[in-house]
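ugh finaly. both done.
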Amino acid sequence: ILLEVAAVYRREGWDSPLADVVLRLRKCAQLLRKTREHVLHSFELCALENVMEEDQRFAIFQSAQAVLMSQMMTSETNDAVSLMSTPSFEFDMNDTAALKTCFSCTVGFRVPEDQVVLGSGVDVLVALKSKAPLPVEIRALKAAFTDGGCDTVVAAGEGAAQIKEIQADGSHLSKDAIILSPGQYHKFLLQVTPREIGHLKCSRVEVLLGDSALLVWDFEKAALATGGKKQELAMKESGSDPLSQMSGVVPNHRGIVVDDLNLGIKIALSVLSLPLSGGYTRVKADISTDNVKLNSPSLLLSVENANSDGVDAQRKGVDRGVYVLKADGTKKCEGAFQLPSMEPHSHLEQEFLVHCPSDAAFVFLARVTADKVRQSADAAITLKPLPPFNFECALKSCPYEFPMLLGSQVKAKELESLENTAARIPPKENFVVFASIVSSCPSDLEVLSINFDGRGDGVRLRSPEGQYEMPCTLCEQESFGLVGYANIDGSFPGGSFGTLQIRWRQMNEGYGDLVAESLFQLPTIMVTHPPCKVNCSYPTRTIVGEAFPLSIRIENTTHVLQDFDVDMQDGQGFIYSGYKSTKEQVLPHDTNELTWNLVPVATGMMKLPTVRIRSAGQKVELSVPVSHGNIFVRPQQGDLGLQEQAHVVVPAKPRQDAAPPAAAPVASQGNEDLISL
């Protein structure tokens, strides 16, 4: 039970309760005379430097060292290399989670490129770290490789290679012993010479701790247990791998390629055009021969994701097709692509079109082989597609129908954040979609079609016919606008209500008849009922210096209490009395009325101040400019007398990103129009 509890605490990173449990496990192992478990738990306690007292860690470490010394097997020789073959204890670091907290090991190759020539020297870096409170002596270090001829042992004494430790400035210093200081990475240099053609990796590292404990890191076993390279890449990304901080170091999970010096085939890949997401990128393969003739050579092409697991994109359902341009059009490469025969010392160039379905980086690989030729040549290149268009989309209400809270560049959001980012739209109300695309490609793009596509049965999305002519050409930074109309039922669950589909191609003969496609998500919306109706009334004409009333009536159309923030914006040419800012609580199905007395100080057609109303509960804001913002102010004339003032009630107009609502029935004193907030 304690072992299971310790595993949970260790996985969650709870050091303090872990220390308590491991202390009990160590005591149990001591009472049961389980020496191996006693050593394991002792070293794990030594690594918990944040929760264990320093004196206690020293005592536990010295006790573990004494136990190891007492279990050392008698041998005719005290040679460290011989002791590695017959250790008293062997700890597999892949299966021993407790010991991994105290000791860590990483491996890398210091080479100028990922590819080296057979028979040339390769520098291998091994980084070791100990969290023990006192220095630890490593008697011997052995590294095994996929090429058995590269296996190397370094140790103190005779019969092994000399120990070389990498210094901070990158140089190496020869030493007689390996001493690991507490909490520091020590990097050691191993020089190997590959004897086999292929992929070279370090498969296993063995470290002799003292004279009786052998620590084993099996990297091939760890890769199978963790699903490929995820564990080593996670260490690299987190910055805990010191070798990842060094330039020119290839991590062990990638390895290096060893080729023959007299290889008769060479291949290189180059990108001829800018990779664009959704489009096709031109890639050229340069193939050359030295002293060999190639009969019916073939070119194997593949695409892999440029992520940690390196899974082929085809397995994930992503169609990254490779095409070749021929006289009768483009043809998709299925399997091996056949090349013409090549004479010795000849050169061949072949262009391909690689599909980039998204903006995710991927690796394009090519391998050339031929009959009766043992060797093959590989090449790879990483492509990072860029978006061909910059997309912007805005939603606006149809004139005099309803207001909405919308931004000028609303993008699709996750459903969890709908309450804060989505535009709120009443059900079955028409609104306008303004979409704009701007070409970001340096070369000209031919746009073949642009279409709106609604999401689900409850979304009706269309664009007027004949509003633009297709195809059209877009230069760099040239924009294209499209207007659509939408109507959404109340059953819509929320989220992006559709996509904008663009079919295009690059205006170059090198792309043949291939057509690219880009999809952009339309903004996120929520279908909600408006919380209130608003109308306002005021005279259409007045006299300078004389006060006139401006009234706003807010009607709560819901079954709950609604809070509204009302602000009067200062307008030029008027002084007023009344609230500048107030908070109104409107009972269900009730109406609140606010009145301001305005005095014009100038004559002519004047723009009235704006009243802003905001629903606190639904975070909806509505601007209410009255009578489209205009009122006629006459000068004072004594002989004209008083004239009857005609009063009208004008629909409240939404702010710039939301159009005014539809007109309501006419009232007795003027035209009263109701709008929904």
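ok and the 2nd:
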Amino acid sequence: RCTGVLAGTLCHQLAYSLAKNNNWAPAISFYRSCEQIISSELGEETEIVASILYSMGWIFFEMDNYEKSVSALKVRVKKSVSVLKDCVRIWNALRIADNSYDETATKSFPLTQIQFRQELYKAKALAKLGEVMAIMSEYDSAIEYYEKSFDILKKEPNRNRMEMSMVLHGKGLAYYWKNGEKEDLEQAMKCFEQSLRFKQVILGFSDIGLASTYEQMGNVMVEMGETSAAVPLYDEALRIIKQVELPTQEQETDIMTMQGALCCINGYYDKGISLYSKITNIMKRKMGYQEEKVACIFNLMAKAYEKIEEHRKACKMYEECLKLRKSAVGSDHLKVASTLYDMALMFHKRGKPTRALACLEESRRIRIDRLGSSVPVAETLQQLGNISKFAAQYGAAINFYEGALAMRKELHGESHESVADVLQEMGDLMDDLGEYETAMNKFGDCLYMRKRRLGEKHEDVASVLYAMGFTLLNKEEYERSMSFFEEALTIRIDVFGVEHSLVGDTYNIMGFIEAKREELDKALVFLMKAYQIRGNIGETLKASDTLKNIGNVHREQCNLKEAVDCYEDSLRMRRSELGDKHDKVADALISLGTVRYDMSLHDSAMANYKEALEIRRDVYGDFDDRVASVQQNIGIMQFRAGNLTEAKHHLDEFVKIRRVNKTKESADYVNILFMIGNINRINGYDTQAKAAWSEALEIFKHIGLAKENPELARTLDNLLESPDPAEKQNTVIGKISVNLLGEK
């Protein structure tokens, strides 16, 4: 006769056999039958029931993280709470260790002295709970479980050394994934180093079991920005894996992953991306579609594309990563929030603030729900402020910054560097809004904190001094502005030396200010220093910007030939770096066209403008204000040349674009309407002339120009009342400022 214990044992053997072959669903079914039979025969609080429940928890964990090959039945436990409940049952079975166990407590595990085997089961169960918590992105709980497991294991360190190393490895991963904060990464590194030492005692220095720890240590170093320290760690992991005579498919992909990382560290991003792409193909074809692992590779590819400024491709990789992560771990996982955050930054760099803000809002929701008041939430609020500011959503930006500031103060105290960072961002926002005194106050608070924490000679101090100088420049307080830039320059030279990008930036802005002060010779001195630094350190595009500024100064000095030489060199550098279809190329063509027009080289000037117009149409479309500005210049040039039909065509295009974009209320729009009215009057179209002048006068008064120019306002009123037929050829040209636009 088959007893209950024998039947339970047979069910257990069947379940174990099925689990070994990854047949998760039937294995779970047999384990449940086994649990019920053994519990009825021997009672629920026995070691064998605990063992069964542990096995079930392990299978549920595997089901939550791996999708089987497409030919197999896909069995997944989607809701993380169901996994947690089953894993809590593991502990429930082990409550024999303490009679005062509280069913409602899932995080409190009082330990008692029991047999070694019972203690080991308990430690393994706690470690498995830590693993489950980590995959659910409950990292603090995971760390707590790992620590409790380690506390049990260290009672018998000589017998449990391997288990201790595995627990430390898991704890290191939890710290690694937690927040990305320096303190957490340092803790992760300590865990991995200690785990490695335990493994080396047992396994020696070349066992395959060491490779994963070396790899994770390399990953931590990369995340901390210490890429040179990551290289020997990856090299050691590769040395160990390559000793395996017949590596598994997973080991081969590990090799390729680390080789890809090394390529990216050494600047060979294309080669790294190629290796990552091969890995995803292998995982899809030969290893089953392991979603979270493939998501991690897509994440690495995205970061590689970021480095080479392929922002569109980076976004595509982040989108693939996001899709897989939502499928693998659910929509409310912290890894999903991190991917959304990274995507937002890429959309921002691509000039898509609406999509960037949508990603950040979703990331914020997840992080607030999961973490509450925390560093990642504060970072997300701050970034929402930055991008809202960029999108001119100033009210929203203020709210986000205030939220970030309050949270930073709550987390770190009133004078922490992160508080200073938010204050500087808020100062920049106030500067954008023209609230210069408020901006200076924010910057002043930031400067005070940084000098106290960092001392007088630190780049972060120089950064806020630079920002204060910029605000004073916008206030047209040039002398005060220069004093802040000079102080920033002194610090930057002391910290970095002369040949540094930030020193070049400071010289460049100082040259710009001297030009605004009409100290043109001094401006050239500063600009030439900026140009030499930027050229020497290989910042070709920045050098082209400075060269254009030098050309502007030469033009102001009426040294037109020197100006042309500067603009031509700037154009050549930009074409070389960016190709022919880029706005910076159009910008240089406009400057070149303007100075050539000054030299009466009308045909070549017109050719420059028309090429710039085609570039901007290609880049921005037909109805962008940057296209309108080129139409304006061409129209003015044609008017001055007497080509009234051509002039009116381009000026009408300018007006059409401004009307579509609702950017009419400006002095340049008024000027162009005056000019269109003049053309119509010259051609005898008095009704059309009156219509143009009437609209011009209405806007002229609305934006306050009539008070500043009362004589011109009276002239327009007289023209609109009764233009004298004998004076048809008279226009108001000469009474208004109509000049070719010099692009910044």
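summary for the 2nd one i guess: The chain is about 75% helix and 0% strand.
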